[in-house]
Design brief:
Number of helices: 15
Structural class: alpha+beta
Helix content: 25-40%
Low-confidence stretches: none
Distance between the termini: 57 Å
Radius of gyration: 27 Å
Strand content: 25-35%
Length: 480
């Protein structure tokens, strides 16, 4: 176990502790992780696993790591894992550097990712506690492959079997490839296919294993130029083999050698693994804490980043024009600010984020549909309490919400969203009357929403929605 920089830890932990009100023992559990966990447990930490193992609420655990990253205790990374092998294909340190196209040489697959596919993890800062993984070039070859380049929770679909354990049974060797040298790796092969991959670059090769078994070693020469592996034989027989790899590239490479069995070779598409829950990039963008602490984060302006599922909530003040005329600009604006503060607090309390205000309206975003519903109901409870505690004109609000795919963009130096789902959400809000919540069919049928609406009168009606052919079903929630 490596040493901890006590002075840095104490000064930064004070900032984290003062950042907000934490539940009892959360800070002590976090400090215990930093001081006592083994090196690998502090590399690419999953906040949801930390929450599960220590009986901490997931939203609080996420906020804890965000504050720790903001003050320099941890480094945040956006990781792309192959859905079929769990290999860490890319890791990005900032939102603006994200690339959505991925290639897995091990599985011979490529594709494009959404923000939902990026796993956000946290590694302890080398200034606080130096880990071997901070210097990959010093790692033993086994740790370099299994601990640095693979996630460990990927399981075979519907089974409690880690794919990594299965993969180890197919591996016939692993080695580094120093530049300007020839490396020989010896193995025994069964039927199927011989594959090799550089887990750093995803450069790979594969040759069939066919014919009658041989007793004398087959020599397979492979040329590696730093970008590609070029095997000299189109196929190899079962039996002993000597793989002779000449690295003509300028930097050290690596080689993981696998003997895929015939039944896996025959699969046209390998099944996607089951992974433990994680903080996705899309979910992180929908958190108010992230937006507050990392205001400089930007989406590359050349292209937005897709999100498969996100929920938008719009609020609007009823009769705001008349209110300004009746109260005057100064008094009316003071009331509007109270309303903004009330909405923002409720949104954050339910794991959402206010994206922007548009006049007297608020646009908020949530990763989970049920959180948007609970926030909407909470907003009206707070408005009722506010109006009951204050003399004079009260706040009258309308709310609408819808969920679906969207694109994350940067507009006017602010993380924003674009697409039809945003437009439909705004239109649904316009259908609400004073003191009402309107939601779309998609949101009404989303997981957990019907349970949130138990005890409320919900009335369905048809209405035209811009961009939706014909009339669509909208649900009006009568509170009480």
């Amino acid at each position: 176990m490596t040493e901890v920089n006590d002075r840095l830890l104490e000064s930064k932990m004070t900032k984290v502790e003062q950042a907000r009100a934490w539940s009892p023992r959360v800070i002590s559990k976090f400090e215990a992780l930093i001081r006592s966990a083994d090196d690998h447990s502090l590399y690419r930490v999953n906040p949801l696993a930390f929450a599960r193992d220590r009986a901490i609420a997931e939203p609080e655990a996420i906020d804890l790591f965000l504050h720790a990253a903001r003050c320099g205790l941890f480094d945040m990374s956006w990781d792309v894992l192959c859905p079929q092998s769990g290999m860490v294909l890319d890791s990005f340190g900032a939102l603006r550097t994200l690339r959505t196209h991925y290639v897995c040489g091990l599985c011979d697959v490529s594709g494009d990712t959404d923000l939902d596919d990026f796993e956000v993890t946290f590694s302890v800062s080398p200034k606080l506690r130096h880990l071997p993984y901070h210097n990959p070039e010093t790692l033993p070859v086994e740790d370099f492959h299994w601990k640095l380049h693979f996630g460990h929770d990927g399981r075979l679909p519907g089974q409690d079997v880690r794919f990594l354990d299965v993969l180890r049974g197919f591996v016939r060797g692993m080695t580094f490839l120093p530049p300007g040298t020839t490396t020989v790796l010896r193995a025994d092969l069964g039927p199927g296919a011989l594959a090799g991959v550089n887990v750093q670059t995803q450069a790979a090769f594969a040759v069939p294993i066919s014919g009658d078994p041989v007793s004398a070693p087959t020599l397979l020469k492979v040329d590696y130029d730093g970008k590609r592996f070029l095997p000299a034989l189109p196929a190899v027989p079962p039996g002993p083999i000597a793989i002779e790899v000449a690295n003509r590239g300028p930097v050290r490479g690596s080689l993981l050698v696998i003997n895929w069995p015939p039944e896996l070779v025959a699969l046209t598409t390998k099944p996607a693994l089951d992974f433990d829950p994680y903080v996705s990039g899309g979910a992180l963008l929908a958190r108010g804490t992230f937006r507050q602490l990392f205001r400089s984060e930007r989406v590359d302006e050349k292209e937005g980043l897709g999100i498969r599922q996100i929920t938008f909530l719009f609020t609007d003040l009823k009769g705001s024009t008349a209110m300004y005329e009746r109260l005057g600009d100064l008094n009316a604006y003071a009331l509007v600010r109270e309303h903004f503060a009330l909405v923002n607090a409720a949104v954050q309390q339910h794991s959402g984020a206010v994206v922007k205000t548009i006049g007297d309206a608020v646009m908020a975003v949530f990763s989970q549909p049920s959180d948007a519903i609970s926030a909407a109901l909470h907003i009206f409870e707070e408005i009722d309490r506010f109006n009951g505690d204050h003399d004079g004109p009260g706040i009258i609000l309308k709310i609408g919400a819808h969920c679906g795919p969207s694109i994350a963009v940067t507009l006017n130096d602010n993380l924003d969203y674009f697409g039809q789902t945003v437009n439909v959400a705004a239109r649904v809000q316009s259908l609400a009357e004073a003191g009402q919540i309107c939601i779309s069919e998609a949101l009404h049928s989303a997981p957990g929403v019907s349970e949130m609406l138990a005890g409320h009168r919900v009335v369905a009606f048809d209405a035209p929605l811009r961009g939706v052919e014909g009339d669509a079903t909208v649900y009006r929630i009568q509170r009480g």
